[in-house]
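Is this the right way to post structure tokens for a design question? Let me know if I should format differently. Anyway, here goes:
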């Protein structure tokens, strides 16, 4: 790798081609958030922790996330960059924490892609069962098997990775079509469930004080943060958005839409299913919900929507991660391969393919947890903790960067400084408390989703590996980012590429 002298300005780097509007940004962010997958699987996992208080926990988690979204929006208006949190935190706080934000988002997304790969495979196997296909070459198909679901999901992961290489515009068009189908099915079944469900509606569902314990509240909130995670994907493609304000509109629009869908889904699920049914069906939760409301073939529609949501979120996960690594590579905090832009498609093609390969490798490693439901719980807990850390640091960066507004305009100061800071402190406090509860819950390590040390080990390794990678970037790669904290200018010269 060619190096410039330490501290010297990096050479001009290529930028990505601007071609997206606000609707495209919403499609990418909504697909990354994957409301159908979160409702179909995440609600059951969360119900196992907080009981029949899903609406309360979704509303409560929305408050700090709204403060985080405001921080992203304001930072994006003054400095649009594919690296977003990595760039903003590095500049406003310290390059070490900035690099950590970029790193944990990458590893969390790779873990998420591995998890979604298995979810996609599970949905395909469930659909095969609904169609009457229960055995292949003498093998009984099991949608609860991590091995089988991962094998099927890897085929889909390869396909969506190749599609992502051809350009964000192509991916956004595909995701828009999938989203329309998903939301029509989701709204139809959830609306019907709310009207006809056998369990009475209760206001206690919205009471956060009725949640069983403080540790259940903390874990439920971080699981809900995982459900909202992905709205910021609109900001990671903002160098390809024609107007930086469109990325902000797309992110906020997506977040508010997710809140409405999560409230609708949580009320519908609790009207139709009992608490044991909610908590006990895991990756098959949405299929079970559909079976309770309709007969075949209509009952299979929620399962088809879940499969579409998982496919879209796979693709939406690959896209922003490759672009975050593109931004980090421009600063030489990562290797040069991540900054190679395809002259044909104008996308970081090599990085996109590598992300898909890493996700496939992690998906294969997840086979050490044989039950799909255990793998999902372990992954969701780990990602929830590290994403909360990333969000909190980005919000603190916004508070530090705009703190002067407190003296100039107190109303603007409250929105730009106080609310992000309070949101950051809330998420850091939740993560710390949950980590401590995991640590004190057992006295030994076991590779099980109910083992606290194992649940704590995963996010700890994610964060620790970030500091190791940062040390390598600073002292081996001699990245100028660690001297200034400034990321590569988003207005760098455009790459001359001929559209295909």
């Amino acid at each position: 790798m060619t190096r410039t002298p330490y501290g010297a300005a990096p050479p001009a780097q290529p930028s990505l081609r601007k071609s997206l509007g606000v609707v495209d940004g919403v499609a990418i962010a909504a697909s990354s958030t994957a409301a159908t997958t979160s409702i179909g699987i995440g609600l059951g996992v969360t119900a196992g922790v907080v009981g029949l208080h899903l609406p309360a926990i979704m509303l409560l988690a929305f408050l700090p996330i709204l403060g985080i979204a405001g921080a992203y929006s304001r930072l994006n208006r003054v400095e649009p960059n594919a690296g977003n949190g990595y760039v903003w935190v590095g500049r406003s706080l310290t390059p070490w924490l900035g690099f950590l934000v970029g790193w944990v988002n990458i590893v969390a997304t790779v873990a998420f892609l591995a998890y979604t790969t298995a979810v996609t495979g599970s949905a395909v196997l469930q659909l095969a069962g609904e169609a009457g296909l229960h055995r292949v070459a003498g093998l009984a198909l099991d949608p609860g098997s991590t091995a089988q679901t991962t094998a099927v999901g890897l085929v889909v992961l390869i396909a969506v990775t190749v599609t992502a290489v051809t350009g964000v515009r192509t991916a956004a068009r595909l995701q828009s079509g999938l989203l329309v189908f998903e939301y029509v099915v989701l709204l139809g079944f959830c609306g019907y469930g709310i009207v006809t469900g056998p369990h009475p509606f209760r206001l206690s569902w919205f009471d956060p004080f009725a949640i069983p314990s403080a540790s259940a509240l903390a874990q439920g909130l971080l699981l809900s943060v995982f459900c909202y995670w992905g709205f910021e994907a609109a900001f990671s493609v903002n160098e390809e958005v024609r107007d930086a304000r469109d990325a902000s509109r797309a992110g906020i629009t997506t977040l508010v839409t997710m809140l409405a869908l999560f409230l609708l889904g949580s009320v519908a699920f609790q009207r139709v299913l009992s608490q044991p049914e909610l908590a006990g069906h895991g990756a098959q939760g949405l299929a079970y919900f559909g079976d309770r409301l309709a007969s075949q073939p209509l009952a299979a529609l929620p399962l088809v929507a879940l499969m579409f949501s998982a496919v879209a979120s796979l693709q939406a996960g690959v896209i922003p991660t490759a672009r975050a690594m593109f931004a980090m590579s421009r600063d030489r905090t990562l290797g040069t391969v991540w900054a190679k832009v395809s002259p044909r498609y104008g996308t970081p093609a090599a990085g996109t393919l590598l992300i898909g390969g890493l996700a496939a490798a992690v998906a294969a490693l997840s086979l050490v947890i044989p039950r799909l439901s255990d793998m999902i719980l372990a992954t969701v807990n780990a990602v929830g903790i590290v994403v909360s850390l990333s969000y909190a640091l980005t919000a603190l960066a916004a508070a530090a960067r705009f703190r002067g507004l407190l003296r100039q305009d107190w109303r603007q100061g409250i929105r730009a400084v106080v609310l992000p800071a309070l949101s950051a402190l809330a998420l850091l406090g939740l993560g710390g408390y949950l980590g401590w509860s995991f640590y004190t819950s057992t006295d030994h390590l076991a590779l099980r989703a109910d083992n606290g040390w194992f649940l704590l080990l995963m996010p700890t390794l994610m964060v620790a590996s970030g500091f190791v990678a940062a040390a390598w970037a600073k002292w081996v790669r001699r990245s100028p980012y660690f001297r200034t904290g400034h990321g590569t200018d988003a207005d760098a010269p455009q790459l001359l590429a001929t559209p295909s």
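Format looks fine. Someone answered above. Worth noting: Residues 95-130 form the longest helix (36 residues). Residues 1-20, 489-500 have pLDDT under 50 and may be disordered.
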